[in-house]
Write a structure and sequence with these properties.
By secondary structure, this protein is α+β, with helices and mostly antiparallel strands. Helices cover 34% and strands 20% of the residues. The longest helix is centred in the C-terminal third of the chain and has 43 residues.
Length: 573
């Protein structure tokens, strides 16, 4: 009785508020008919916008009408109404929804109506009416209104929706992840005339092992078309209706059955293009405890499931889920994205990780050193790629003296590297820091103490192979050396020839200048050569003269004077 009285009072106040606060209408305009709840709420919204202060009575009346039954009893704690957010869905529809049912076919064929149309109080009819109303509310709202409404539901993830779906039903929830498919669906009965198209898509959220979110929206995201094989990062905000049942995209080897994922209705997904790898989910990082033994990441069919699977939220469960999440994030990202994210924490080394590991958990840091061991292992349980694909683990000796090695796991093996238990390769690695993990001491260890090493997960290693002292020199290496030496010798010879040629030209030019300036030769060697030539010429002439003299007879007979050389002269008488 009181509910009816209050409802009648609200309608009366709403009508009076509309008459007093609404602007005057033109005589040609038809009179507004408030025939259903939506038009009444729309009128109150317009009333609230009139003037500087609006109309309080109209707002209160609209909110009380939208709240429907039992407003003043069990719904009073949640009595909130914000005109800066999308309008709420009627509780009359939300209360009739049952979780875990198949997605309702929103199409309506008059010749073959669905069974739920003949049962007004059925869960499927309630779901369909809530779906239609969510489309109308979304079409009337703006993205900013969805942003403001989603602020009050931060932290609502798949785990909370699965645990208490009724508590969050009708609220605007946010999901961020990879949009894997878009399908075009029929608008359906009772949809608003302004909604021309309806699309349904799957979004893989941040919760590992969880089914995808099923989202319905009226506007396609940028640069996206209906497709069954998409790989787009998006953020979506929409009304949460229920957990719906739908078949998986691909059944695994265990014959997985139908999935139960959250169903959201909103305007449009917003495409996001991250330039850094997405962060590991905080719910996995929070329970991790350092200095614990390495968690068994491989689950063998012949062995029982590890005990930590029965205790979700424990330290080993958190480490394993963070490990899987890090591998998935690394597989989706690029090496350049890791490099950019690691630049912020390039100063972090082993001393900082050892002193305060919890302060740096989940950060992407850089390790540079010598990789000593490289192994290929099977992928863990919750990775989003075929189970036959391998991942890789390695030990890297960092620059800190006497520090334990870094243990790293990555998804891509670089060219030129192969798994080996003995190697010495200079590498750089960028990866998420998970924790300090305890490893049993090796048998050859002199002290026999366990090793507590930092554990990182990333994309790949950047390797610079270096030839060891015992490794043979390859044919290519020899060819490169010989070719280099030949090139150097050829260049040296060319330089010498060039210098000699230039020197001869220079000397010739100097000699010509000297010859022109001084006709007397100052070259001793030249003078000696000229003397020799002159002497030779004189010898030839002398020989010729002697030969000629020997060949000719004497010119006359000598005259006898009668004087004997040996007889002394006689004195005069």
């Amino acid at each position: 009785m009181w509910d009816c009285a209050i409802r009648c009072l609200c309608i009366t106040v709403l009508v009076l508020s509309s008459a007093t606060a609404a602007p005057a209408q033109d005589k040609k305009d038809p009179e507004p008919i408030l025939s259903d709840l939506d038009m009444a709420i729309g009128a109150s919204v317009r009333i609230a916008g009139q003037g500087a202060h609006g109309n309080v009575l109209g707002v209160l009346s609209a909110r009380m009408m939208a709240s429907e039954d039992n407003l003043l009893t069990n719904r009073w704690p949640e009595w909130k109404f914000f005109f800066s957010e999308p309008l709420p869905i009627s509780f009359r529809y939300l209360d009739g929804i049952v979780d875990g049912r198949a997605i309702v076919d929103t199409r309506y064929d008059k010749s073959k109506p669905s069974e739920f149309w003949t049962k007004p109080g059925s869960p499927d009819r309630a779901w369909h009416m809530a779906f239609t109303e969510a489309l109308r509310r979304s079409d009337e709202s703006t993205p900013d209104m969805f942003d403001r409404a989603a602020e009050r539901t931060k932290g609502v993830d798949f785990a909370k929706l699965k645990k208490t779906p009724a508590e969050h039903r009708g609220k605007i929830v946010t999901v961020s992840g990879k949009l894997t498919r878009i399908q075009k669906r029929a608008v359906g009965a009772f949809a608003p005339e302004s909604v021309a198209e309806v699309y349904v898509g799957y979004v893989a959220g941040s919760s590992l092992g969880a089914p995808p979110y099923v989202i319905a929206f009226t506007e396609l995201p940028e640069k996206a078309e209906p497709n069954r094989e998409l790989n787009i990062y998006v953020t979506f905000q929409g009304y949460f209706l229920s957990l719906v049942q739908f078949p998986p995209e691909a059944k695994d080897e265990k014959g997985q059955g139908d999935l139960f994922g959250p169903f959201l209705v909103g305007r449009a997904p917003v495409v996001t293009e991250p330039d850094e790898p997405m962060a590991i989910h905080p719910s996995y990082l929070k329970p991790i405890v350092d200095n614990r033994p390495m968690v068994r990441v491989g689950i063998e069919k012949s062995k029982p499931i590890p005990e930590f699977w029965t205790k979700p939220g424990g330290p080993d469960w958190g480490w394993y889920m963070a490990y899987n999440d890090g591998l998935n994030r690394a597989n989706d990202a690029t090496l350049e994205m890791f490099k950019k994210a690691a630049a912020e924490h390039k100063h972090l080394g082993y001393p900082a990780l050892k002193a305060t590991p919890e302060a740096h958990r989940g950060k992407i840091i850089t390790v540079t050193g010598r990789m000593k061991v490289l192994r290929a292992v099977e992928s863990p349980r919750y990775v989003r790629w075929p189970s036959e694909k391998l991942i890789y683990t390695a030990y890297i000796i960092g620059p800190t003296p006497q520090a334990p090695p870094f243990v790293v796991a990555f998804v891509d093996l670089p060219d030129g590297l192969k798994p080996s238990e003995t190697m010495d390769v200079s590498v750089t690695f960028h990866g998420y820091f998970l924790s300090l993990v305890r490893f049993p001491a090796e048998k050859r260890s002199p002290k026999g103490e366990d090793i507590i090493a930092p554990y990182l997960v990333g994309k790949t290693v950047i390797a610079q192979p270096k030839r060891g002292p015992d490794e043979p020199i390859s044919y290519a290496y020899i060819t490169a050396i010989v070719g280099g030496l030949v090139a150097v010798a050829f260049i040296a010879a060319a330089i010498m020839v060039w210098f000699q040629r230039g020197d001869r030209q220079t000397q010739a030019e100097i000699a010509a200048v000297r010859e022109k300036a001084n006709p007397f030769s100052l070259d001793l060697a030249a003078e000696a050569a000229a003397a020799q030539e002159a002497a030779a010429a004189a010898g030839v002439v002398a020989a010729a003269v002697a030969a000629a003299a020997a060949a000719e007879p004497p010119a006359a007979t000598p005259i006898d004077t009668g004087i004997k050389p040996e007889s002394p002269p006689k004195p005069d008488a």
